Amino acid sequence: MAIKIDGKAIAAAVRQEVRAEAEELTRQGMTPGLAVIVVGDDPASRVYVNNKKKACAEAGIRSEEFALPADTTQEQLLAVVEELNAREDIHGILCQLPLPKHLDDKAVIAAISPKKDVDAFHAANVGQILIGDYTFLPCTPAGVMELLHRTDIAVEGKQCVVIGRSNIVGKPMAMLLLHENATVTICHSRTKNLEEICRQADVLVAAVGRAGFVTPDMVKPGAVVVDVGINRGADGKLCGDVDPAVDEVAGYLTPVPGGVGPMTIAMLLKNTITAARSLMK
Ligand code: GUN
Question: From ligand 1's centre to the CA of 106, what distance in Å?
């Protein structure tokens, strides 16, 4: 049986540290403030936004929700972003994705001030990450690195395989592993011999979005397996990208739920503190 990496416990530790920092900033007269924009009524987005607001309240971060109707125009949405860019009591801005189809998410991300871009989706922040000189890291890959650090798993010199090449997870994940001197391979839907490449991984990160995609025959015995997937199984239950039977082969495994998921919000809180501190200077 693999050792489970307890994301809930590690996220709780991060959140406690964030709370102490938020209290310190409040003492200095600058309570960190996060604006959360959500457009329309996507049920998954609703759950995520409520979780983010609750986590802010527990960490001593002031959050403000901007719930806009599904028929909001691009101009109206950009006007909200501009207003928030200008507000001194708002340090972080996030626009929950996906947006309704008639809206251009790229233009919205580009409009958010890079200094307040706590998702680290803006091209300026993505570029900073690429050159290894960054203020913010995107929450999910940063959460994975935090799980590895706090489990004393070093990636230096190791074979790390990331399955998935999204801008939000796969690509920045590969970059963060590279910054820590891992040898990194990115696999995707067109990769040939995917199983064979995965089997060589000392650290395997699955960010595919397909339930049970990583099967035991794809895992090197003793490998660290990080499951970024959040899928609904046929039974309606939450499940990851990793087949539960991988537990018999892996050395370490992040469970779903309770692995990477809780870390994403913890890192958002951390980014909000970072934003407040850097805007203070
Ligand atoms: N939708 C799913 N994940 C995310 C995220 O990390 N940030 C935002 N803004 N929207 C999301």
Answer: 13
